[in-house]
Amino acid sequence: MATVTLKVEGMSCNHCKEAVEGSLKKLPGVKSAVVDLDAKTATVTYEEGAVSVDQMKKAVEDQGYDVV
């Protein structure tokens, strides 16, 4: 297992949190995704080789948020 923390801009409420977490959890190989609204981060635990960080970024960006 590996963990990555993505810096996500544009999240401001629980709906944002659920949208980002949900989009990440749908990806194959993602075991958990936890958003911290105050820190503007999404911490993802995943199986290396099953999903890439670029795929995670795209999933978040497809929800309308920016990964910086």
From TrEMBL:
Asked if Electron transport is a keyword of the record, the answer is: no
- What is the first-listed, main subcellular location in coarse terms? cytoplasm
Q: Name one GO molecular function term.
A: copper ion binding
Query: Which SUPFAM superfamilies does the record cross-reference, listed alphabetically?
Result: HMA, heavy metal-associated domain
- So which residues are the signal peptide here? none
What is any one of the record's Gene Ontology cellular component terms?
cytoplasm
Question: What InterPro entries has UniProt attached to this entry?
Answer: CopZ (IPR049740), Cu-bd (IPR000428), Heavy-metal-associated_CS (IPR017969), HMA_Cu_ion-bd (IPR006122), HMA_dom (IPR006121), HMA_dom_sf (IPR036163)
Q: Which processes are annotated in GO (biological process)?
A: copper ion transport
Q: Which Gene3D superfamilies match?
A: 3.30.70.100
User: Entry's Pfam families?
Assistant: HMA (PF00403)
Q: Tell me the keywords, alphabetical order.
A: Chaperone, Copper, Cytoplasm, Metal-binding
HMA domain location = 2-68
Localization, per the record, is: Cytoplasm
Q: Which PANTHER family match?
A: P-TYPE CATION-TRANSPORTING ATPASE
Q: Which NCBIfam families match?
A: chaper_CopZ_Bs, copper ion binding protein
Query: How is this protein named in the record?
Result: Copper chaperone CopZ
Q: Which organism is it from?
A: Planifilum fulgidum
